[in-house]
Design brief:
1 helix, globular, 4-stranded antiparallel β-sheet, 32% strand, single chain, alpha+beta, 62 residues
């Protein structure tokens, strides 16, 4: 499996990585043993539901 780091991770060490295979795997680069696995359909629904165009905007609390 080939892991790819998010382009939004930067150099801060807070990295999200994904790998594509029969399923989509997601992990925190600081804890590589813990992964989330999604089917391609579930991954697509997750991305659609979190798109800036469809996600509700909630102002931060102070």
């Amino acid at each position: 499996m080939r892991w790819r780091k998010s382009s939004f991770s930067g150099d801060s060490g807070n990295c999200v990585e994904i790998a594509y295979g029969r399923r989509v795997h997601v992990r925190d680069s600081k804890r590589p043993a813990a992964t989330l696995r999604f089917t391609a359909a579930a991954w697509a629904r997750l991305l659609t539901g979190t798109s800036p165009r469809t996600a509700p905007v909630t102002p931060p609390t102070r």
